[in-house]
Amino acid sequence: MKTIYKGSLMAILGLCLCLYGHAQDTTARKKDTTSIKKYKPFDINLQLRNLYIWRGFRVSNSPIADVDMHYSTRDGSLAIGVWGGEGFNGEYKEFDYYVSYTKKGFNFSVWDINNFTDYPNANLFNYNPASTSHFIDVTAGYQFGNSFPLSINWSTIVQGRDTYVKSNGDLANAYSNYVVLDYRLWKQGTSNLHVFTGGGFAFGRDQNFYGSKPNIVNTGLTLNKDLVLFNYHMPIAATAMFSPEHKTGALQLVVNVF
Q: How far is CA 129 from CA 55, 64, 121, 168, 250, in A?
């Protein structure tokens, strides 16, 4: 009887250990499953800026908030969305549409940029070059690998309020270009420092969308870091911008709220 009892006790103990091990394995698998980031085809982001600079322009001298609402594919290569910003004092106003594609270092995007700050009676659907508040900007670029952290982007305004008057008096598209080189100088953890230089020009003429002549319109430094507040990660970026063409400079702080 003692032998049978001892054998039964060992069998029960073994069964309990097996069940415990199975439970632990199941729990681990559940944890692994829940730790995988779920695909969200639709998302929204909010940024706050102390002022707004863009390609050497001081677009808004007062703080602004901007919102990006978009759809993206599962691998994140394709994004389609709308972007809007407004100044805290109500002066700056912008509402854009865009589509972008990124794959293996290459990127391509088309933006319908509609900054109607200086167009109080702007018609959202007006694309007449003589009166529109829109311009359509096409960008193509390439990001080299980590061993050579350089990126280059070429943007051309293909339609909209980037115009000039021809000798016969007709209005024509200037097809202004903006080319920027960006190089990462330093990286430590989630922090990194970049230096960039961008030039504006148009083929066949001095006057272009970015200035009165071909010139460097945007150069400076950008410091990115991940700010952690009570376990909440908030990426921030500070950009010191200088514009030799416009004879201006600015320090912009961007806070990615979510």
A: 21, 28, 15, 17, 30
- Which tokens hold the place of 46? 């909010």
Q: Let me know: does 113 contact 94? Beta carbons within 8 Å.
A: yes
Q: Any long-range contacts for 159-166 (C-beta under 8 Å, 24+ apart)?
A: 159/127, 159/129, 159/134, 159/135, 160/113, 160/127, 160/129, 160/132, 160/134, 160/135, 160/136, 161/129, 161/132, 161/133, 161/134, 161/135, 162/135, 162/208, 162/209, 163/129, 163/130, 164/205, 164/207
The two most distant CA atoms of the chain are separated, in Å, by 115
Burial 154-187 (b: 16+ CB within 10 A, else e): ebbbebbbbbbeeeeeeeebbbbbbebebebeee
In this prediction the pTM is: 0.85
Q: What is the pLDDT of residues 133-182, one digit of tens each?
A: 999 999 999 999 999 999 999 999 999 999 999 999 999 999 999 999 99
